[in-house]
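pinging the channel bc i need a second pair of eyes. not urgent but kinda urgent?? the chain im working w is below, pasted from the shared doc
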Amino acid sequence: MQKIAFLIKKVGNMIKNLLLYAGSITTIVMTCALLYSAFAFTYYPKKMQNFCDSINKGDLIQHIKQQADDNNFEYSENIQSKVLISDTKTMGKSTCFVNYEENGQVSDTSYMND
């Protein structure tokens, strides 16, 4: 009878320790997720703004698209000679709009961070 009581107590202690470890691991994971989301919404928009500010009037749009690819930004182009460049890491929060002329040279840029 004492062996059964001892085993029950030992199993109970093991379960208790497992729950403590699981709680600690959950806390660590949640803290990391919170820190990453704070990082993503401060660093990545600044990176996009720096990219947009580095585009000069007269640059070739093909060169800008290549730079966007190199920085892992997504871009889309419409028929009105505009390119929308965004960073997926910010879920479209930071966006660079690039207007270009028929000869493929950049005429205007603007940055939006909403």
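so Residues 9 and 93 are 54 Å apart (CA to CA). and The chain has a mean pLDDT of 88. — does that match what u expected or am i reading it wrong
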